[in-house]
Specification:
About 80% of the residues lie in helices and about 0% in strands. It is mainly alpha-helical.
């Protein structure tokens, strides 16, 4: 997808912004993947005995797996979304926008779950201090 031009229709501009946002989601999901490892290492170093409770490891393992799956979905959809420029009627545009909206909701839900999980880790770590 190219940059926004003065002659672009409102729908074209929306699709271009959505594509930019998809790239941002992919970057954020890649960051989360790395952050999980760093958080667990930091947590392990901050507690006596350097052993992370199994329940915390399991929760982060599940979240990391969900993160990777969502990243794959976002990357795959980003590749598909580039074909939106081939739409020649509003029904086609609406189909892409609905799918995009569904993915946006999944992304937001994932972020909320991850943030709650991080808060659990922080609360647990502060109790150990």
């Amino acid at each position: 997808m190219e940059k926004i031009e003065n002659h672009d229709s409102d729908v074209d501009v929306l699709h271009k912004y959505n594509f930019i946002e998809l790239k941002g989601w992919a970057n954020q999901l890649q960051y989360i993947d790395n952050e999980i490892d760093k958080l667990l290492n930091l947590y392990a170093q901050s507690i006596h005995g350097n052993e992370i409770p199994k329940n915390i490891l399991m929760l982060f393992s599940k979240r990391k797996k969900a993160n990777k799956q969502l990243l794959e979905t976002v990357l795959s959809y980003s590749n598909t979304y580039t074909k939106v420029t081939e739409c020649d009627d509003i029904q086609c545009d609406i189909a892409y926008l609905r799918e995009y909206e569904q993915l946006r909701k999944s992304f937001q839900y994932h972020l909320e779950k991850y943030q709650r999980l991080k808060n659990t880790l922080y609360d647990n770590a502060f109790q150990k201090l």
